[in-house]
Amino acid sequence: MWQIIVTLLIYLLMVIPVGNYLYRIASNKKTFADPVFDRVDNFIYKIAGISYRTHMNWKSYALSLIKTNALMILVTYLISRLQGMTLFNPNQIEGMDPSLSFNTVISFMTNTNLQHYSGESGLSYFSQMAVIIFMMFVSAASGYAACVAFIRGLSGHSKENMGNFYVDTVRITTRILIPFSLVGGLLLVWQGVPQNLNSNLIVDTLEGTKQVIAMGPVAALEIIKHLGTNGGGFLGANSSTPIENPTIISNLIELYSMMLLPGACVITFGKMVSESKANKQDNLVKQTGQTSFINRAFGKQGFSIFTAMGLIFVLGLALCFWAESQGNPVLAQLGLNQAMGSMEGKELRFGIAQSALFTTTTTSFTTGTVNNMHDTLTPLGGLVPLLHMMLNVVFGGKGVGLMNMILYAILSVFICGLMIGRTPEYLGKKIEGREMKLTALCIIIHPLLILGFSALAIGSDWGREAITNPGYHGLSQILYEFSSSAANNGSGFEGLADNTLYWNITTGLVMFFGRYLSIIIQLAIAGSLMRKQFINQSSGSLQTNTMSFALILVMIVYIFAALTFLPVLVLGPIAEHLTLLS
User: Fold this and answer.
1) Which of its termini does the chain have fewer beta carbons within 10 Å around, N or C?
2) Which of 447, 451, 448, 445 minimizes the C-alpha distance to 572?
3) Which range, 111-120, 195-204, 567-576, is most confident?
4) What's the gap between Cα 511 and its chain centre?
């Protein structure tokens, strides 16, 4: 337990300066690295024909994002289909199947990185670099750019200017993703992660058999897969293998990499919103329960959002750690000692604590990388990652968690406004019919995709045939697959036989709609709010920057989850747990 606490405390010390750095980039403020990066950015603007001074409204911003992503999908699809004819293919891997190529390029362009293939046998080195690593950078940059535009809309510094998608994407790539990846990649190489273009090694084992050891540009992929909250592994077994994750130090590097930027987005939100006209005009309402350090570190609004996310994360982590520490109830009833807890599917070098922390983190920060096999988690341990993907608000990757949590904040002030008989307000803007309709639509899309496609799979032969563990766990396998797809997570209960035409197409559609419909609606909400006039808060206004509002927000999230997902969770992991107890 203590190693979990220390790990999280170190994270808090790291995320504050990174959040301040991201805030300065998002708001075009000066940083120490400007003399170098300004030249790089200006060169890219020049050769790409990007006008730095061109501003976009929310429609232009969303359209630019979709057009750019669509072009990249087309190019990378062709590469994956023709990879057998390309360079850097020492292992002679043939081109991908059409449906698998479709699923793969949609998966990586939507920042989901769901893998229905094993990277060591399904992709050439050229495809790993030109398709997978490339899309890990651009999909993450696209998501963070959309998040920054969303924050600009909420802060209301302009009536129409959400920034420039191309400029935001370039700045996030050159000033954050690339330099952080260079440093993190070198640290992983230092820990023993391969980085080469050699063909796979074939060695003689002590048992007298042959074993293939994968080679390739592993470190380059590993760092951006975590930093960009991507999750797709170079190998099929992902970060549970010593090749991708050899030591406890490499495990911490990967853990912190996927936690830093999502947490930094919340700090960026708090700082940018604190500069809004409403916060400058309203000095009457004082903050309670916050020190000046917290205000400076997180921003007034960022503190309540970060606290709400942190509470949900800690509750889920505690349940996952406890469940895995207890071991299998059946073995306990047989009198078998499980002092180490349930170690099935886990690495001895990480143990229960780091496995539970990694599991909760990768599904809360919607990364999808794994250092243990989630299919072998205890029922309650597996419930946590499943639930956090269904919530999709616990930090989330590439700003997704923040954008989704803001929707719940809008829903919360609307409900509280109805209870006290006042017009709901958020960040100095009135919440009216248009915003509530868009918010309700965006919130309902996520469970609709998960439950609708899960019902389709359960009710059809192609869905049931993929289940390898019948019973309650089989339902959990299907729920996990579509929850992971809709949440842009990418991890899976890998017992599911999902590399088929039907699963490739259905999960591809869920990933596509789960990503782009949400972004478009969220930008529309921000665009609607940014055109409204600021209103001064009064003593009767609901304060959204306090600990009490954070608790209200947590309750609203859990209530909504119970109303939408509890019945199917009862039929899946909860019923499985009760069966083991009986």
Assistant:
1) C
2) 451
3) 567-576
4) 13
pLDDT digits (tens, 9 = 90+) for 460-504: 999 999 998 888 999 999 999 999 999 999 888 877 888 899 999
Q: Are residues 57 and 189 in the same domain?
A: yes
* 325 falls within a domain: no
The percentage of the chain sitting over the pLDDT mark of 90, rounded to a whole number, equals: 65
- Give the integer Cα–Cα distance in Å for 528 and 21: 28
- State the sign of the Cα–Cα–Cα–Cα dihedral 235, 240, 245, 246: negative
CB 543 within 8 A of CB 285: yes
Is residue 27 domain-resident? Answer: yes
Distance between CA atoms of 305 and 135, rounded to whole angstroms?
Answer: 29
Q: List Cα–Cα distances, 274 to 18, 95, 157, in angstroms.
A: 18, 51, 11
Domain limit, last residue, from 277, 301, 322: 277
Whole-number Å distance between alpha carbons of 347 and 246: 10
Answer yes or no: is 470 within a domain: yes
Domain final residue, candidates 277, 300, 318: 277
Range of the domain at 442: 398-581
State if pTM tops 0.85. yes
Distance CA 439, CA 406 (A): 10
Are 409 and 556 found together in one domain?
A: yes
For residue 487, the one-letter residue type is A
In a domain, residue 230? The reply is yes
Name the H helices within 421-500. 433-458, 461-464, 472-486
Determine the straight-line distance between the first and last CA of the chain, rounded to whole angstroms.
Answer: 29
How many domains, in total, are found in the chain?
Answer: 2
